[in-house]
Amino acid sequence: MTSQLPTDLQQLDAQDTLRHKRDEFSVPEDIVYLDGNSLGCLPKAVPARLAQVAQQEWGEHLIRSWTRNAEAAQDWMGLPDRVAAKLARLIGANANEVAVGDSTSVNTFKALAAAMSMAGERRVLLTDTENFPTDLYMAQGLNKLLGDTWELRSCLNTEIMEHLTPDVGALLFTEVDYRTGRKLDMKGLTARARELGILTVWDLAHSAGAFPVDLNGCGADFAVGCGYKYLNGGPGAPAFLFVAERHHDAAPVFLSGWMGHADPFEMARAYAPAAGARRYVVGTPQVLSLSALDEALNVFSDVDMHALRRKSLSLTDTFIRLMEPLTGQYPLTLVTPLNHEERGSQVSYRHPDAQQVMKKLIERGIVGDFRTPDILRFGFTPLYHRHADVERAVLGVRAVLEGQP
Ligand SMILES: *Cc1c(COP(=O)(O)O)cnc(C)c1O
């Protein structure tokens, strides 16, 4: 295929200060992979790290690896804390405010349980009518445990401000809507919630690693997020939990496992929490998957997250611009906001036959995804996408809509 990339796109790729980062990933060249918001690409350094962990740390040193080389920061016991420290920088947190392990669902439970127990008599949890199902399910399950004593109130995420009322005890929202890609005003909403004494739990599934997040700058109370989406930690990578330092004394730990104990090997009868967010590490750390995430996060070590954000917006702007003529010709409706402040790192369209369209796109090697009922979702990962990929994706969409073989 000859390169006929429009010169403006060529220029954008030539000026891209992050273009060298693509070399740090295994990016399949035969397809355009636009699903890094669901499972990020493999960082090239991860397989060697996994082999080393399996062969040396597990194969040779076995149980000694838990404490071996602690001074050189190679002990398994300290691994969750080291991963937490790398992650903290990306989400505007202090290292001692982040715990890494378990799934996002389980961390949502931990955060909600703590927030709801701190909310006093205000037994209303405000959440998003359209929230990702697991967030809703975890709230429902927890409420059952609490004897259904809470009201689970929901509203559209475009109308949160009006629903912040003094009877609300806690809120649970996802900063970037997984379907529409709409990004909420986390700062403004958190500020208003704090004025009203509402505890905030933010789900950063589509935020962490996608753009700069500033949890402490926003005054957030709790947050959770995924390791396998924009953080590229691999399938089922450990998730994270953020608990603001000001709550460390007051926030109870309900999943009080021994690995969050102040001194696990003391084998004490009674639970005493470890310092900081380490108390939210429940059981034995998932060393294999934590090691993959640890290595994957090194890719971010020299990345200016503001530059990453600029590139993300340039990619999504370009996609929206190139798709624009197609929205006039076909029943394709942009649902992602044009306003930069309200956009995450994905672009979505409604199409009455979205499922079938996405199936054909994937057959053509344009790998986005379909979300019920009618959403075509295209995720852009500024660490490894080029404007040339955007153009290829749009050509693929055009071909599918035109019914080209
Ligand atoms: C992907 C995603 C999750 C995933 O939760 P898991 O426990 O990792 O399966 C949770 N919340 C949101 C908003 C998501 O997009």
UniProtKB/TrEMBL annotation:
It is an enzyme of class 3 (hydrolase). PANTHER family: KYNURENINASE. Belongs to the kynureninase family. GO terms for biological process: anthranilate metabolic process; L-kynurenine catabolic process; L-tryptophan catabolic process to kynurenine; NAD+ biosynthetic process; quinolinate biosynthetic process. InterPro entries: Kynureninase, PyrdxlP-dep_Trfase, PyrdxlP-dep_Trfase_major, PyrdxlP-dep_Trfase_small. Pfam families: KYNU_C (PF22580). This is Kynureninase. GO terms for molecular function: kynureninase activity; pyridoxal phosphate binding. Pathway: Amino-acid degradation; L-kynurenine degradation; L-alanine and anthranilate from L-kynurenine: step 1/1; Cofactor biosynthesis; NAD(+) biosynthesis; quinolinate from L-kynurenine: step 2/3. NCBIfam families: kynureninase. Catalyzes the cleavage of L-kynurenine (L-Kyn) and L-3-hydroxykynurenine (L-3OHKyn) into anthranilic acid (AA) and 3-hydroxyanthranilic acid (3-OHAA), respectively. It comes from the Bacteria. GO terms for cellular component: cytoplasm. Its cofactor is pyridoxal 5'-phosphate. Its EC number is 3.7.1.3. HAMAP family: Kynureninase. The modification N6-(pyridoxal phosphate)lysine is found at residue 229. It catalyses: L-kynurenine + H2O = anthranilate + L-alanine + H(+); 3-hydroxy-L-kynurenine + H2O = 3-hydroxyanthranilate + L-alanine + H(+).
